[in-house]
């Protein structure tokens, strides 16, 4: 079956000068064009000699819930045309609302070699098909098909607006966590991303410890950070990694995805539970001629990043190689 061939935008080193609150990018040339149109919120995982990317439901084919692409070299990517990593929606998903509006998948591997996928979809139990919750699904193969776990969502705080953008993280001591966004702007009061009109609703990024199976919760969630005046209406799309020196990096997007202010920022801490201090942005409109970059995910090697940016009528996937040192991240 033919797929779309992707030429990766492998981003060369970017010198960034950071204060404690901001970054001034020194722009360099992009070594390639954007990779693919309409592949938003990409997540990344490497299995053996192959990189895999999973993305939000495409605008051009609502019958596919989760897109898949792969690469042998992190440079040339191929979309698995017609493939759906999550072909069947569980009973808690409102499939009459945009076929589930399935967003922001993330895949992690368990110790037994199987895989867990976290994803967001519209719940049919609250919000009249408006609110998203986070679900979990499992598969024996990285490409699936994934089967939903349980009769309900993994995280579903509908009184706070629901939840989206879940991402798995395994620490050096093998403790597993899931970070996610409480989707407060879904119950906002209008304006930019439905949360630009006071009173601004919090959109906190949360951390949930889980057992080795990646699904069973251990204790309750911990808030890592939330939106403040500098973030605009939201913080979202979290992805966590740990550097060899013990620094934890929480990548996230701030501002509204529908505006040029959308970005990729990050925060650092000395424990996965924080406290985190915000830095960045790492990528913003104008960096490498990007338009509204966001939705970044970092591989657990701490070097390889995927993100999306506006391109044509969709959001294209880009690649970057990052370097970290203390409170400094360069891409």
From TrEMBL:
Keywords: Glycosidase, Hydrolase, Signal. It comes from the Eukaryota. Transmembrane segments: none annotated. The keyword Signal applies. GO terms for biological process: carbohydrate metabolic process. Pfam families: Glyco_hydro_43. GO terms for molecular function: hydrolase activity, hydrolyzing O-glycosyl compounds. The keyword Signal applies. The active site is at 41 (proton acceptor), 236 (proton donor). InterPro entries: Glyco_hydro_43, Glyco_hydro_beta-prop_sf, Glycosyl_Hydrlase_43. PANTHER family: BETA-XYLOSIDASE, ENDO-ARABINASE. Belongs to the glycosyl hydrolase 43 family. This is Glycoside hydrolase family 43 protein. It comes from Cryomyces minteri. The lineage of its organism: Eukaryota, Fungi, Dikarya, Ascomycota, Pezizomycotina.
């Amino acid at each position: 079956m033919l797929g779309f061939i992707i030429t990766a935008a492998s981003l060369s080193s970017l010198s960034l000068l950071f204060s404690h609150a901001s970054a001034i990018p020194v722009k360099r040339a992009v070594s390639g064009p954007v990779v693919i149109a309409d592949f938003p919120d990409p997540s990344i995982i490497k299995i053996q000699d192959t990189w895999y990317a999973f993305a939000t439901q495409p605008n051009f084919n609502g019958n596919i819930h989760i897109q898949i692409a792969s690469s042998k070299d992190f440079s040339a990517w191929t979309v698995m045309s017609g493939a759906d990593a999550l072909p069947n929606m569980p009973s808690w998903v409102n499939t009459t609302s945009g076929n589930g509006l399935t967003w922001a998948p993330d895949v992690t591997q368990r110790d037994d070699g199987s895989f867990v996928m976290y994803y967001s979809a519209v719940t049919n139990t609250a919000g009249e098909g408006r609110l998203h919750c986070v679900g979990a699904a499992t598969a024996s193969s990285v490409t699936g098909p994934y089967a939903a776990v349980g009769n309900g969502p993994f995280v579903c705080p509908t009184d706070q607006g629901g939840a989206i953008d879940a991402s798995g993280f395994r620490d050096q001591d093998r403790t597993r966590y899931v970070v996610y966004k409480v989707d407060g702007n879904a119950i906002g009061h209008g304006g930019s991303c439905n949360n630009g009109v006071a009173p601004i609703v919090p959109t906190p990024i949360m951390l949930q410890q889980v057992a080795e199976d990646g699904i069973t919760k251990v204790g309750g969630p911990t808030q890592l950070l939330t939106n403040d005046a500098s973030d605009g209406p939201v913080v979202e799309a979290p992805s966590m990694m740990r550097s060899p020196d013990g620094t934890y990096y929480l990548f996230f997007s701030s501002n509204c995805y529908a505006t040029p202010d959308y970005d990729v920022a990050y925060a650092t801490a000395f424990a996965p539970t924080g406290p985190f201090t915000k830095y960045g942005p790492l990528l913003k409109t104008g960096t490498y001629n990007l338009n509204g970059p966001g939705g970044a995910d970092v591989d657990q090697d701490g070097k390889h990043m995927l993100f999306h940016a506006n391109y044509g009528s969709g959001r294209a996937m880009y690649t970057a190689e990052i370097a970290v040192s203390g409170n400094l991240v360069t891409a």
